[in-house]
Task: inverse folding
């Protein structure tokens, strides 16, 4: 095997049949089993997939390999990523493999690994899995092992209602009566992926009339999977056409949430976590929250309003969850639409996010546009460049000289916080050979000026 790509805290993503192959799937399955057996000689592993067309083939390969290894695999078939993590905890499984490429284009797929704590594998665990993977590659290259599999294992889907268990946990922890009383009409784009197996039941229990879009879980995405405004024209039209109260958009594995106002306007993903924080802290003032370094200042400002402290972490769901647990935070999240409410689930969860937003609308008797307007207002800006020929430590040093009036945080790249609440964050990507620059300010001129000053050093 010549492929040099390895998993990181974001998992493994590749084009099926090219950078993600049968060999990669089998050898990583073996490596993950070896990792789990360090704690449990007889692990039980849940397998779920996000609905992509290549998912059934990859699922079959994993189930076959688990059978070869005499390890019990529970076939959840199409399951949202947050449902998989919830189910590992709920059923005390040893771990899980999620077949997903998140928001990557349709030709991609991937693997994400979940540990026995129902958390994504963190840095040290990833190193251990990669160590076992290297050993498997060495044995394979020496001809000491092979990847031939016997006749296909029967694809028997578990009879456990994982999505209903997950939905019922959400329903236990929100004001269902208030939401039902409003008789909301909601448009929801499920992008023909994993949200399709969860949304109908959840919305029915909430007494919400839904107008679905892309609601068949066949992996034939109705638009580009990255939930950006330019990809979401159809739901904007549907919201206006049906006169609904709010629209929601999931990404393929349903851990990110985008909101559409009753006016048919797709708003920034950053608002999902800010609205959830507003809901929770209004009832729990003073409780800490955790956000990553690139997430909008909106949530931090809401926390300040309620006398709560906001802790910042490195980019990546695992780091946010780790920070959340360390600081006993009541709610956490990421600006990409990821809401983490540990009372229900210790993972980014679009279903939790939309439920908290509906609860906020119902309890305050305000439409979504008004709630958006009441949030702190910032103008966010993003850019990226190739890392080729870039000396990041040198750039960080020069930026410190330019931005002398700012406080800085170097736990993940470098973030500058200015006295007027503007900020910049420069960091290398975890998944691409690029560097990203994020920033916010209350005025367009201010953020444009900060970007120009930063770019004078970067490029």
Result:
């Amino acid at each position: 095997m010549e492929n040099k790509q390895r998993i990181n805290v974001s998992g493994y993503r590749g084009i099926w049949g090219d950078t993600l192959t049968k060999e990669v799937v089998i050898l990583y399955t073996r490596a993950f089993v070896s990792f789990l057996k360090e704690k449990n000689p007889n692990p039980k592993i849940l397998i779920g997939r996000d609905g992509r067309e290549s998912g059934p083939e990859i699922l079959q390969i994993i189930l076959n390999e688990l059978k070869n290894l005499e390890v019990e695999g529970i076939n959840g078939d199409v399951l949202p990523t947050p449902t998989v993590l919830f189910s590992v905890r709920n059923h005390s499984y040893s771990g899980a493999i999620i077949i997903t490429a998140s928001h990557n284009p349709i030709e991609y797929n991937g693997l994400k690994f979940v540990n026995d704590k129902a958390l994504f594998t963190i840095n040290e665990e990833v190193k251990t899995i990669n160590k076992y993977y290297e050993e498997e590659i060495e044995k394979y290259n020496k001809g000491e092992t092979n990847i031939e599999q016997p006749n296909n294992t029967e694809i028997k889907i578990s009879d456990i209602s994982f999505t209903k268990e997950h939905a019922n946990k959400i329903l236990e922890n929100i004001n269902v009566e208030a939401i039902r009383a409003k008789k909301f009409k909601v448009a929801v784009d499920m992008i023909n992926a994993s949200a399709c197996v969860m949304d109908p039941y959840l919305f029915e229990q909430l007494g919400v009339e839904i107008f679905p879009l892309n609601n068949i879980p066949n992996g034939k995405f109705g638009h580009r999977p990255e939930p950006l405004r330019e990809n979401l024209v159809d739901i904007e039209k549907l919201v206006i056409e049906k006169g609904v109260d709010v629209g929601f958009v999931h990404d393929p594995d349903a851990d990110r949430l985008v909101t559409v106002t009753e006016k048919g306007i797709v708003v920034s993903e950053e608002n999902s976590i800010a609205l959830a924080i507003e809901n929770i802290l209004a009832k729990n003032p003073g409780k800490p929250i955790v956000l990553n370094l690139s997430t909008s200042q909106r949530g931090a400002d809401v926390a300040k309003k309620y006398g709560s402290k906001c802790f910042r972490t490195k980019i990546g769901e695992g780091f946010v969850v780790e920070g959340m647990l360390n600081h006993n935070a009541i709610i956490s999240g990421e600006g990409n639409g990821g809401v983490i409410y540990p009372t229900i689930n210790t993972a980014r969860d679009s279903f939790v996010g939309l439920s908290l937003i509906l609860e906020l609308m119902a309890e305050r008797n305000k439409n979504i546009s008004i709630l958006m307007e009441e949030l702190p207002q910032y103008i966010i800006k993003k850019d990226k460049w190739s890392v080729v020929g870039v000396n990041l430590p040198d750039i960080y040093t020069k930026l410190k000289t330019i931005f002398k009036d700012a406080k800085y945080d170097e736990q993940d790249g470098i973030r500058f916080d200015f006295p007027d609440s503007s900020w910049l964050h420069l960091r290398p990507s975890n998944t691409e050979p690029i560097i990203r620059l994020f920033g916010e300010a209350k005025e367009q001129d201010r953020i444009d000026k900060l970007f120009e000053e930063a770019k004078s050093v970067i490029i």
